[in-house]
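ok new one. same drill as before - structure tokens go in, u give me an amino acid for every spot. 247 of them this time. try not to just spam alanines like last time pls lmao
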């Protein structure tokens, strides 16, 4: 029974050591810089491979050693590895607590949803749509084809406030300033949907409704206020430093 416990400790601690070394080596040296959202999956693959290789090595050692040698090997490897993971866990909790923003930081963004949708699908490598929800404080990206994966992550208050300010500037444009977007001479490239849940329209009224959509052609997107609103939503994933989950 005692040997079983020492063997288990040696195998598990060896595997955990391999898990960390595999993820570290994958993230530092083996993941291409242009991997994008797939980078996390690649790092996970190397972490699992590291765990498997080191666990097998630990198992070989565990069943070849016996008595005092087995006990010493399990303690020499197991204690530092377990302490290392305890320290990593504590650091993770402290970092998470430090990065958590208070609700007051999100108040200026108000309550809204906005979605940027690609109408021109000629480039199969671009995602189809990006959705932003200020209440859940997340962005959700769908695509690109053919997998049409749905990925999401949390948004910090600064980015949400910038998007809301850009929406307010967009809704503050007059009908004359939006005329280029209604031209039928150019094809629609992108479409923006929004819903100002808090009904906080820009001062002075708006030519656009609090819940509506705007089709944009190339000329339309040359206007700064319009281009900024589209761009901030479209590129929100590039400004994310937190965990991205995909399904």
């Amino acid at each position: 029974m005692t040997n079983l416990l020492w063997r288990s400790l040696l195998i598990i601690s060896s595997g955990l050591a391999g898990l960390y070394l595999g993820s570290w080596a994958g993230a530092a040296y083996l993941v291409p810089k242009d991997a994008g959202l797939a980078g996390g999956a690649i790092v996970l693959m190397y972490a699992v491979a590291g765990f498997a290789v080191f666990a097998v090595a630990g198992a070989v050692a565990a069943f070849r050693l016996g008595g005092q040698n087995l006990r010493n090997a399990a303690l020499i490897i197991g204690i530092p590895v377990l302490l290392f993971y305890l320290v990593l866990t504590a650091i993770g909790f402290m970092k998470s607590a430090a990065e958590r923003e208070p609700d007051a930081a999100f108040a200026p963004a108000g309550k809204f949803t906005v979605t940027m949708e690609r109408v021109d699908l000629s480039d199969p490598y671009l995602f189809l749509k990006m959705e932003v929800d200020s209440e859940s404080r997340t962005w959700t990206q769908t695509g690109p084809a053919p997998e049409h994966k749905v990925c999401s992550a949390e948004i910090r208050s600064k980015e949400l406030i910038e998007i809301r300010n850009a929406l307010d500037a967009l809704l503050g444009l007059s009908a004359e300033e939006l005329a280029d977007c209604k031209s039928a001479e150019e094809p629609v490239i992108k479409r923006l949907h929004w819903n100002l849940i808090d009904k906080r329209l820009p001062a002075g009224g708006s030519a656009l409704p609090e819940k509506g959509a705007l089709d944009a052609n190339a000329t339309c997107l040359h206007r700064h206020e319009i281009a900024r609103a589209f761009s901030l939503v479209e590129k929100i994933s590039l400004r994310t430093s937190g965990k991205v989950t995909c399904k």
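The beta strands are 112-118, 129-133, 138-142, 150-154, 190-196, 211-216, 245-246. and btw The chain is about 50% helix and 15% strand.
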